[in-house]
Specification:
- The protein has 3 helices and no strands.
- By secondary structure, it is mainly α.
- It is elongated.
- The N and C termini lie far apart (53 Å).
Length: 80
């Protein structure tokens, strides 16, 4: 249970820090706060896309079509 909480905190800590930075910057500079939010959104989108690709690859590896695709790619890599 402790390792689960630790892993969750590892994932949450950067998000919370980004929100704190954005709130601090909001008082001083709305444009800087906007940049923090945009950076956070960009990172979140990138992470979601990577997770989606990893999931698709793992699902593809388990299917017959995925196995066929790997064989075709291996054959294509061997031919000059």
């Amino acid at each position: 249970m402790g390792s689960l909480v630790s892993e969750m905190m590892d994932e949450i800590a950067p998000v919370v820090q980004g929100q704190i930075d954005a709130l601090k910057a909001l008082a001083a500079s709305p444009e800087k706060a906007k940049q923090y939010v945009q950076d956070y959104a960009t990172k979140a989108i990138r992470d979601i896309a990577q997770t989606s690709m990893d999931f698709a690859a793992s699902e593809d590896a388990r299917t017959v079509e995925g196995q066929k695709a790997r064989r075709r790619a291996a054959r294509a890599a061997r031919t000059p």
